[in-house]
Design brief:
The protein is mainly alpha-helical and 705 residues long. Helices cover 61% and strands 5% of the residues. Keywords: Membrane, Signal, Transmembrane, Transmembrane helix.
């Protein structure tokens, strides 16, 4: 049995490692109308418009005022100026035979230009402050080497931060030109042009840039009404309208039955009541004690979720480039004070641990191996249908509503997510996007769901042995599976020499995407915390009904081990963030064993708290407010990243509110439908059927994330 199980896991690992596909993303589902940008270009009409603008001082000023200025704080890392997006697109003036409209473009302008620019033409005095600092280029002076080096180093670090916290999905943005990793040596400037002109046509109005050898790259352009309606918009409107209608009808039925008629609640039609906002809100906010529940899990899940959102908030601010003192932030990121934030990616392994733990804890002693195998389809379907509604709803929001309600100069960086969701919605629903399209994920954080589901599908291979009730067989299956996964991951890591993390300044930026695709979102390299969770789930299960499992000495040792591991895993990030770090052996060892060790540290914390030695820590983690956050954690994980428009508190509050609505209108109604049509999935003993809604909510939601 040992040999067979080991070989099976190794074979599956080999498949997962080599199962990557190359997929070309078509432009047919792009967030913007790509044909429109080509159709509006008209060189002859452009010359006519340019001549008219040159003779109209006020209109000329409108274009310059909405366009380029020299970025403030170049020497502290600010290399872009955004102009005024809405002012530019709002320019519209009728002239004989046509209409002059504005077009917003972003260009990348290298700081060093081997040219001699002539004097600029005479322009009104009001334009003197609107034009870029041509002297910076015209003087042929070279930017200080130290500043250039710092800008390059910062850009590499910023790229890593952006990718690790969800920017992988922006690798391909479709229409924009990739300026590579030299963007730190370039000014990214907004220019406002007549709609019918290309950047070359417009700039040639002032100086013949082609003959002078003036170099720049056009990154993207935006036009008024350049977002086309697609089939996904109509599907989203139809489905959300249907959900709204069902919610109104179901709530009306529920209120009439329970409040106005005051009939017996036990005789209410559960199917008619499934979409009731009144009932679902009560279900979400009702907290009742449940015998045998691990109370600290909701607190751990809530703190882990807050850590994720803090990290994503920081990364979106840095990745956007709106911060003027970026070099100072770069220095802070490498300091000891920032290790807690730079270590934030490890928190996702907490979710893998909880999934594995609850897979065993919620089935051990209730289901036999034979019953599990006979009802394996229900084991999978219950999980799939519990995750699918919120995921599908968020995909629809991403492909449609979020594309329309948000816009601006930074939307070019976010439209990739819309594009990817329109093309890869199906691979997201099937939970295979981490293999099929790892560089074009719909809903960037959903890579976790893909791995989580894949591990859940594999879990019966181990679970069937654990449920036998024979400890030797159970421990053999648990340890062999963990050793197999660790062995496969270690070999794979030493073969590829991945950096410690994508935010590793000593490693070249080219390693970032490779790391993200083949390590960070790889099922094999991320699986070990799940199998550690299986072990702790088994430990908690076999000692569930027993008292005096621990004494103060043992509890103290476990507390020390847990604290040492958790703090050590966080602070170990610091040396890897330094430029002089260069040790492939340590990189490979840490990549292979840090994540299961972190899971073991959190598992020790859970074990101590579950057996009465948690003290004030267990009291905090068991607070009732965390139970509500725990129930919302899955929806928050799915919705928070696309909704990041403000800083952390706004992100957290907005994600909380949207997650609340998503849970009330989608998740809880669908849970009733699943229970109604599937008969409660795998049957449990009669005494377990009387458990309150609290236990149902904790188990189902906890397994999901």
């Amino acid at each position: 049995m040992k040999c067979g199980l080991f070989l099976l896991v190794v074979c599956l690992n080999t498949f997962f490692v080599n199962a990557y596909f190359e997929v070309v993303v078509p432009d047919s589902q792009h967030a913007l109308d790509l044909n429109l940008f080509e159709e509006v270009l008209d060189p002859e009409l452009c010359d006519e418009h340019n001549k008219y603008i040159a003779n109209d001082t006020f209109l000329l000023f409108k274009f310059f005022d909405a366009g380029t200025r020299t970025p403030r704080g170049i020497l502290t890392g600010n290399t872009q100026d955004l102009g005024n997006y809405y002012q530019c697109l709002g320019i519209k003036q009728e002239i004989p035979n046509s209409v002059i409209e504005g077009k917003y473009c972003m260009i990348s302008l290298p700081l060093e230009q081997n040219i001699q620019l002539p004097d600029l033409p005479d322009l009104p005095d009001i334009l003197s402050q609107a034009l870029p600092a041509w002297e910076l280029i015209h003087s042929n002076r070279r930017v200080n080497d130290k500043v250039v080096k710092s800008l390059n180093e910062y850009n590499a670090l910023k790229t890593g931060v952006d990718v690790v916290f969800g920017g992988l999905g922006n690798k391909s943005l479709g229409r924009s030109t990739d300026v590579g990793f030299l963007s730190a040596l370039s000014l990214n400037l907004a220019i406002c042009l007549p709609k019918v002109c290309s950047a070359n046509n417009a700039l040639d109005t002032f100086v013949n840039i082609t003959d002078l050898g003036f170099h720049y790259e056009e990154r993207f352009c935006r036009l008024p009404n350049d977002k086309p309606w697609v089939a996904g918009d109509y599907v989203a409107i139809a489905i959300f309208s249907l959900i709204g209608l069902l919610s109104i009808l179901s709530t009306a039925y529920d209120v009439r039955y329970n409040i106005f008629l005051q009939k017996d609640p036990k005789k209410v039609n559960k199917l008619y009541q499934s979409f009731s906002v009144y009932n679902n809100t009560n279900r979400l906010l009702t907290i009742t004690p449940v015998p045998g529940a691990i109370e600290c899990l909701d607190g751990i899940r809530s703190f882990a979720m807050m850590w994720v959102i803090i990290g994503h908030t920081f990364s979106t601010q840095i990745g956007s480039g709106i911060v003027a003192n970026q070099l100072e932030i770069f220095e802070w990121m490498m300091s000891l004070e920032a290790v807690w934030l730079m270590a934030a990616p490890i928190t996702v392994d907490t979710f893998f641990l909880l999934t594995g733990l609850l897979v065993v804890y919620t089935t051990y002693g209730k289901v036999t191996p034979i019953k599990l195998l006979k009802n394996l389809h229900l084991f999978y379907l219950n999980r799939i249908f519990r995750i699918l509604p919120v995921l599908c709803a968020m995909i629809l929001l991403q492909v449609s509503f979020l594309n329309w309600v948000v816009d601006g100069p930074f939307w070019e960086a976010k439209m990739g997510h819309v594009h990817h969701c329109r093309v890869y919605w199906w691979s997201t629903i099937l939970h295979i996007q981490n293999f099929l399209n790892p560089s074009g994920m719909c809903l960037s954080p959903s890579w976790y769901l893909a791995i989580d589901m894949q591990l859940y599908i594999l879990s019966p291979i181990v679970l069937v042995w654990v449920l036998t009730g024979k400890r030797l067989i159970a421990w053999t299956a648990l340890l062999v599976s963990l050793i197999a996964v660790l062995s496969g991951a270690t070999v794979f890591n030493f073969q590829n020499n991945f950096p410690f993390s994508p935010v590793t300044p000593s490693r070249p930026p080219e390693d970032i995407i490779y790391y993200m695709e083949y390590y960070y979102t790889n099922t094999l390299t991320r699986a070990s915390p799940f199998f550690v969770g299986l072990i702790f789930g088994y430990l908690l299960s076999i000692y569930r009904e027993k008292t005096n499992v621990l004494n103060w000495v043992t509890a103290g040792i476990l507390w020390f081990v847990s604290g040492f591991i958790i703090l050590g895993t966080i602070f170990i990030t610091y040396p890897f963030m330094q430029f002089d770090w260069d040790n492939l052996l340590i990189d490979n060892l840490v990549n292979s064993f840090m994540r299961p060790v972190w899971a073991a540290g959190v598992g020790c914390l859970i074990f101590v708290c579950a057996h009465g030695y948690g003290g004030i820590v267990n009291w905090i983690l068991s607070l009732k407010m965390f139970k509500i956050l725990g129930r919302l954690s899955y929806a928050m994980y799915i919705v928070h990243y696309p909704l990041m428009l403000l800083l952390f508190l706004a992100d957290f509050s907005l994600a909380l509110m949207v997650a609340f609505l998503m849970t009330i209108f989608v998740d809880l109604p669908c849970s009733v439908l699943v229970k109604h049509f599937m008969g409660g999935s795998i049957k449990t003993p009669p005494e377990d059927k009387q458990k309150s809604i609290e236990k149902e909510s904790q188990q189902v939601t906890s397994v999901k994330i």
